[in-house]
Design a protein that fits this description.
The protein is mostly helical. It contains 5 helices and no strands.
């Protein structure tokens, strides 16, 4: 991971991560193509985070950390698929970065979002 890339470090926020997962799903192609596996991964991510959308805070105990770890695995898989299908674009990459920020993985998000198409010169990126 690139140590010198600026990133936002924010607290774990599963409710907002769920909203971002929904945005990602909306930004993906909707027609039936080879990107169907990509949509299935995005749908799995959204389904994992949906139970937390209406909460004011993260679930208690170790559940929040387990959900975070599962969401990160799905997020990484999603980026691999976005990159393989060459479907990345700036807004999608921004959402990926925001997702990882909400998972307390801001540094990884700043790097992985570039693979999902975020413009490295975007005004939305940390500087």
């Amino acid at each position: 991971m690139a140590e010198n890339i600026p990133y936002f470090q924010v607290a774990l926020n599963l409710p907002h991560a769920g909203r971002i997962a929904r945005r990602i799903l909306i930004l993906l192609p909707h027609e039936e193509t080879e990107a169907d596996t990509l949509r299935k991964t995005a749908m799995s991510l959204e389904a994992l985070l949906t139970p937390y959308l209406d909460l004011d805070d993260n679930p208690g105990g170790t559940l929040a950390l387990r959900v975070r770890d599962q969401a990160a695995v799905l997020g990484r898989k999603l980026v691999d698929q976005i990159e393989a299908e060459k479907l990345g674009h700036d807004r999608l990459g921004q959402c990926v970065r925001n997702l990882f920020e909400c998972l307390e993985l801001g540094q990884e998000g700043a790097v992985i979002s570039l693979r999902a198409g975020e413009n490295p010169k975007s005004f939305q990126r940390p500087f």
